[in-house]
Amino acid sequence: MVGRCLDAAGLRDPRLRSAYGECFRIGRERDCGYRALLFWLPPVKRPYYSALGAFITYTDDILDDVRVSVELRAERYDRWLRRLGAVLAGQPTEPARSEHERQGELLARAWAHTMRTWDIPEDAVHAALTAWRADLDAIEFATYGEFERYVHAVSSTTAGWANTMLEPRSEDAARLLVPISVALQLIDCVHDLVEDLALGRLYLPLEDLYRFDLERIDLERAAREGRCPPGVRALFRFQAARARRLVEQGWGYWDLVHPANREFPWLFTHLSLLFLDELEHVDFDVFAPTGWRDTARRVRVVARSYLRAVWSRRAGAFGRPTPTSAGS
């Protein structure tokens, strides 16, 4: 599959093929869900989306490695930024100290090529990486406005890069994508609450906790004990309603990108909404066993979406032709 996608994208340079191949491997090993969704895109797009996914995953892995101290994570992150900066500038990189850093260099080369191919501004990437660095610290937001600004700096920015690859047909696409990206990040914060608290992070705004007479320590206790008292359930119910309103504000975004690419954001969004439906089914007990997931419904949603994606390609919708710089 990888070779066919690289051929479709016109990637002939052996070094680039090796770099993009590493991105596919990262996706296969670290984010099976994201890799599976690649099949919803035409083969010509998959190498670039693999590079974007690997870039996000690799960066997250450095920031989220609970096995090492914050100081060591910061050192590794700074080395990653220097390596990426050198690749973008066409300069020699520091000698790799580990297999992980060797992997990072391959990823950096694929991501740099993706940036050039899709005209992703270098200053936007640096700004996102700077905002990302805040995750090294014990993080919390006093207000929803603070949370929203953080999401715009990180998640909405990367979503904007994805939007470029999906080939928007209207300027409204970028506008509709913003509330959807905030909603998906909010849902992710609920889904990953236990993991985030273990890293010293609480993304849900403190003002929302206070609304339900909760403190941060109450969430930490609930996560530690694996139980969901009424106040905590009410908090998650509130966040779910907010996420649904945000998705409604961006509804129809997928109709504003190239027909060959529409099912990718449609499915991504609908699977997140399905998670909220499932959470509501257990009265917003985020600590409930995963057996409550509606697997049959998920299969139906995924299967129908995949058939539509395949049909769009058979109908002759393939998306942007291979860029002239792709093989360089």
UniProtKB/TrEMBL annotation:
This protein's source sits in the domain of life called Bacteria
Identify the taxonomic lineage of the organism of origin: Bacteria, Bacillati, Actinomycetota, Actinomycetes, Pseudonocardiales
Gene Ontology molecular function, alphabetical: transferase activity, transferring alkyl or aryl (other than methyl) groups
InterPro entries reported for this sequence: Isoprenoid_synthase_dom_sf, Squ/phyt_synthse
Spell out the Pfam families in the cross-references.
SQS_PSY (PF00494)
Q: Which protein is depicted?
A: Phytoene synthase
